[in-house]
Fold this sequence. Notes:
Blueprint: H1 15-26, E1 42-45, E2 52-57, E3 63-68, H2 83-97, E4 105-109, E5 119-123, E6 128-129, H3 130-133, H4 139-157, H5 175-192, H6 201-211, E7 222-224, E8 233-236, E9 239-243, E10 250-252, H7 261-264, H8 272-278, H9 286-309, H10 316-334
Helix pairs in contact: 4-8, 5-9, 9-10
Amino acid sequence: MLPVTASITKNxxxxxxxxxxxxxxxxxxQVPDERDGDEGWWSELGHGWFNVAYRLRLRDGREVVAKxxxxxxxxxxxxxxxxxxxxxxxxxxxxxxxxxxxxxVHHVDTTHDLVDADWFTMALVxxxxxxxxxxxxxxxxxxxxxxxxxxxxxxxxxxxxxxxGPLAGPGERTWRATFTRLVEDVLRDGExxxxxxxxxxxxxxxxxxxxxxxxxEVTEPRLVEWDLWPPxxxxxxGEVVAVIDxxxxxxxxxxxxxxxxxxxxxELGDPAAFLRGYGHPGVLTDTELRRRQLxxxxxxxxxxxxxxxxxHTDPTQYDWARARLAEVVAALRDGRP
Length: 337
């Protein structure tokens, strides 16, 4: 199992509360016998930095997952507000309109009487995430599975949306307006908590204005996950069995997807296998290149600012993302790849 992640957004609960949640979701008869003690029937899953998730065993032996939104008194970034609702909406959309494998949701609770936040339970997906496996698989096998990630991303992107922006709305008529708002939200989040990103917010705004015309090429809203990195792909017996963690999805430009990041920011991973699976030639036009740089700019801003909101004590992510952010800003400023 992955090590438990240290983040103040993790809304950890006591075994007694977990029992109450299971009673509500599956009925009192499925609550583990108290004589079993507090060991064995529950464990915290170490995956992710935002929501907390527990692996739970019901009395009949079935195993499920409970996922809980951050505590009500913990400030989150603007785009993270209502993230659990986004995840549930995305799962429903993917189950209805695609064959992309996603977990089955069993119960949703928004009452806040057992826990001070929304939570839901879903089927446990057996397997390991592709991020974990990347250190143990042979290169050819890793290449094959990353190509599957590309194929699944393409299938997700084939879902057309009614507008640009949040799945539940309100949306925008143009992608430029939506993406400008996304960047502005992150800048304001950083300013609110006095995060030193190493870049003046007004310079970011100026770069977005200078290159924003490239965003106007995108005229059709598509469903994008934005967060479909290898750790969000579950693998069992050598096959992809599920895509997880959908709380960052929105309607936008498919080029914003995680698998394309390596084209303009190589440190974010070699995109070759992903692109092959997606069916993308990997060659961008000049305007696509600028858009992709803007998307890296946005992502790296998020990665810097979120370290403060999540209470990171290890500076590794902050230092790495800030250095990459400076590189992207310089490239955009100089008009180079």
